[in-house]
Amino acid sequence: MNQMITNHLPTAELQALDAAHHFHPFTDRNALAKKGARVITSADGVWLKDSEGHKIIDGMAGLWCVNIGYGRKELARVAARQMEELPYYNTFFQTTHVPAIALAAKIAELAPAHMNQVFFASSGSEANDTNIRLVRRYWQVKGKPEKRTIIARWNGYHGSTMGGGSLGGMKPIHAHGGMIEGIHHIGQPDWWSEGGDMTPEEFGLLRARELETAIEELGVENVAAFIGEPIQGAGGVIVPPSTYWPEIQRICKKYGILLIADEVITGFGRTGNWFGSTTFDIKPDIITIAKGLSSGYQPVGGSILSDDVAEVVAEGGEFFHGYTYSGHPVACAVALENLHLMQEEHVVEHVANVAHPYLKARWDALRDHPMVGETKLVGLMGSLALTPNKEKRAKFAAEAGTVGYKVRERCFANDLIMRHVGDRIIISPPLVITTAEIDILVERAKKSLDEAYKIVKDEGLFVSA
Ligand SMILES: *Cc1c(COP(=O)(O)O)cnc(C)c1O
Predict the structure, then answer these.
(1) Is any atom of ligand 1 closer than 6 Å to the C-beta of 227?
(2) How do residues 264-296 score in pLDDT, each as one tens digit?
(3) How far is CA 102 from CA 119, 321, 332, 441, in A?
(4) Ligand 1 pocket, 262 CB below 6 A?
(5) Ligand 1 close to Cβ of residue 289 (< 6 A)
(6) Fewest CB within 10 angstroms: 119, 333, 422, 425, which?
(7) 263 lines ligand 1 (CB under 6 A)
C-alpha cells in the first residue's frame, strides 16, 4: 500500500513533494511552496486530523459538501460493493443501470413536485455547463433560437469551467481565460456593502428590478434564462433581503424566462429544508445540484428539470450532450446511500430544529464583538461582516481581504476551519454538528476574532476607508 507509506512521511517531505508536483486549484503556487500546505490525513464527524496530529474542527464541511460528516463507513461499504458489482457503465447508448435509476428516482422524490427528471454530471461546474446548453436548446425547440442570453449576478459563483466561470460574476475568474458569449450580469443583493441608505427591503427590490431592466435592454426575444444561488455561497454567504426572490420570481414569470436555481450549496439540507428553493419560496425550472448530494464522498452533480423543461427538450429529439461519467454507478450508489442516511437520521430536521437555533443565538451574539457588524445564518450557512465602524457599515482602509485574512490565519492557528471572502468570514459546517461541537466552533471563532482584532489594532489597520 504505497499510499500508507506516503502517509507516514514526515510533514516537511510531504510538503516538498506537494510543492514539486501538485499544482493546486485557486492557489498562489509559489506562496504556498514557501509556506507548505497543511496535510490532512484523516477525518471523523466534524473533525479533521493533520499530519502534525492537530484536531481541527471543520467549519466549512470541506468545500461546503461533507453534509453527513466524515468517516461514514456505510458509504465506504456501498462504494466497495458497487465497484465489485459494476464499477462503470455508461448511460449514453440506450443503456442504464440500477444506481442511476435509483438515485434519479430518489432526487425526484425529494425535489419540488413539478421537477421529476435528472440529468447527471460529475460536478457543479459541469452541471451548469449542461444548463447553458439545456436552456438554449429549450428555446430552439420552441422555435425561438435567438433566445440565448443568460442573466446572472456579479459576485455569483457557478463553478470554474468556461461555462460555469462565465455565469459566475467574479472578475478575477473572467480575467483568467475570458468568458463565453451570451452571459449578462446584474448587481448582487448584498445590502451590507452596497445598500447605502436604503432599507434592506428597498434594496432587495432595487436589485431584483435590475433583472427587469436588463431584459428590457437586451430584448426579451434574446433572453433565455436567469441563474442565481438562493444564497450566494462563495461570494461571502450573502443572504438576500426578503423582497428579492419574490420579485425575481415575478419578473421571470412576467417575461416567461427560465429560472435556474443553483443549489450546489443550498441543496440537500443546508438551509434547513431539502432545497433552498423551498426556504425562499422559489419555483425554479432547473435546479443545479452537486456537493451535498453525495456529501462529497464521490464527485457527482446534475440538473433537476421541471416537467416543462424535460418535455420541451425531449420533443427536440436527441440532445447532443453528456459526460462519460454522467450517472457514474459508484458515485450514484454513494449519493443514494448518503440521502438514505440523511432521511433515516433526520438530518434536515436536525438542522432546522436543533443545530440552526442553537448556533443562531451564539452566532448573533458575535455582533457584540468590536470588529463584527452584520451576522447572518440561514440553516447552517453563516457569515460575519467585519468592519471598523458598525453604524456606518464602513469598509477598512486597507485593501479588501487584508483583515479577513488575518482572522482566517488566527482560525488556522486555533484549529478551526473558517474561510474569509474579502472581509466577510463564512461558515458552513457539516449538518450533523452537535450542540457541544457548536460550542467549540463558536469559542474558537471568538478567540480567533479577539486575537485578530488585537493584531489589526496594533498594526494600525482598524481604520475606515
Ligand atoms: C461549488 C459550486 C459550484 C461548482 O461546483 P464544482 O463541483 O466545484 O464544479 C457551482 N455552483 C455553486 C453555487 C457552488 O457553490
Answers:
(1) no
(2) 999 999 999 999 999 999 999 999 999 999 999
(3) 13, 22, 8, 37
(4) yes
(5) no
(6) 422
(7) no
Final residue of a structural domain among 344, 364, 394: 344
Whether residues 283 and 168 share a domain: the answer is yes
Say how far apart CA 9 and CA 146 lie, in whole Å: 58
Nearest residue to 150 via CA among 56, 252, 58, 79: 252
Q: What is the CATH number of the domain that holds 247?
A: 3.40.640.10
Domain membership flag for residue 19? no
pLDDT at 4: 58
Q: What is the pLDDT of residue 8?
A: 74
Residues 234 and 305 in one domain: yes
**What Rg value do the Cα atoms of the chain yield, rounded?**
22
Residue type (1 letter), 27: T
Residue 129 Cβ contacting ligand 1 at under 6 Å: no
* Averaged confidence pLDDT in the chain: 97
Cα(291) to centroid(ligand 1), Å = 7
Residue that terminates a domain, selected from 344, 376, 409: 344
Range of the domain at 453: 38-71+346-458
Q: Residue 53: how many CB atoms within 10 A of its CB? A: 8
Among left, alpha and beta (phi > 0; psi -120 to 50; other), residue 59 is: alpha
Mutation to probe ligand 1, out of 64, 125, 162, 229 (largest number of atoms < 8 A from CB): 125
**225 and 265 inside one domain:** yes
CB 107 within 8 Å of CB 312: no
Which residues are within 8 A (CB) of 282 and not within 5 positions of it... i.e. 6 or more apart?
230, 245, 248, 249, 259, 261, 276
Instruction: Write out pLDDT tens, residues 186-204.
Output: 999 999 999 999 999 999 9
pLDDT level of residue 7 (50, 70, 90 thresholds): low
Q: What is the pTM of this model?
A: 0.97
C-beta of 124 in contact with ligand 1 (< 6 A): yes
Position 2 pLDDT exceeds 80: no
The pLDDT, as a whole number, for residue 1 is 42
266 Cα–ligand 1 center, Å: 11
For residues 275 and 375, state if they share a domain: no
